[in-house]
Amino acid sequence: MILKTLAFIALLGVSLVRACSEDLVGNGGALHSPNYPDNYPNSAHCVWTITTDPGTRVKLTFDTFGLEDGGTHCSYDSLVIRDGNNKTTDRLSRLCGGTLPDPVIASDNALYLEFRSDSSGVAKGFHAQWSAINSTGSTVGYSQGNSSSSSSSTVVVVAAAVVVVVVVVVVVVVVVVVVVVVVVVVTLKINIFYRKFVLKP
Ligand SMILES: [Ca+2]
């Protein structure tokens, strides 16, 4: 029981650490595939939303790019980029293979990126810079950078800590209950033994 609980905690911790989705807010920063510059893992699913200042447009420029090549439909691993802040917005591109993509520019101040890998075949992944540009195409100065990204990490750490505390409390309660039951049973047995063999002549 305790070993199973500990294994559960370990698995939960690993899955929380591997979470790779981020909300990126500000006028510049970088993002990359999980484990970059090492190969991304199988069965990964990451979503990034990028939001720059109102009135600007998001520009995404890739430094490196390499996903398992799944043909024109990117049937194996893919990075889908959408023109907005959610998965229902227009798709700008669906990327895979080893060709460095051209910069992607949103029509407004938000981009939505969704990376998926299938169950086999991995590659290096990608690394990209995002920035805010104005109506003339010039880069707008940095504002908050990756502030929201670091707060996402903090949320993950706090969530993991809360889960661990809750599980520990449950384990302690179960152990206390078991000990109480054992003590009651042993006491009853001793009582019966005493009445049967000691009190009777
Ligand atoms: Ca793959």
Summarize the structure.
With 201 residues, the chain is α+β, with helices and mostly antiparallel strands. The chain has helices spanning 2-17, 147-199; strands at 22-25, 28-32, 45-51, 57-66, 78-82, 91-95, 104-105, 110-116, 125-133.
The kinds of small molecule bound in this structure are: calcium ion
Strand order of the largest sheet: 1-3-8-5-6
Portion of residues in beta strands equals: 25-35%
Structural class by sheet pairing and helices? alpha+beta
Rg result: 27 Å
Biggest sheet architecture:
5 strands, mixed
Tally the helices. Answer: 2
Shape: elongated
What is the total tally of β strands? 9
Distance between the termini: 45 Å
Q: Secondary-structure element sequence?
A: HEEEEEEEEEH
Percent helix, as a range, is: 25-40%
On the 0 to 100 scale, the average pLDDT is 84
Unreliable runs, pLDDT <50, ≥5 residues? 5-18, 146-152
Structure description:
This protein is an alpha+beta fold. Helix content is 34%, strand content 27%. The chain has helices at 2-17, 147-199, and strands at 22-25, 28-32, 45-51, 57-66, 78-82, 91-95, 104-105, 110-116, 125-133. The strands form two sheets. It has a five-stranded mixed beta sheet. Strands 2-9-4-7 form a four-stranded antiparallel beta sheet, with no helix packed on it. Helix 1 (2-17) packs antiparallel against helix 2. It is elongated, with a radius of gyration of 27 Å. The chain binds calcium ion. Residues 68, 76-77, 117-118, 120-122 line the site of calcium ion. Residues 20-133 form the CUB domain.
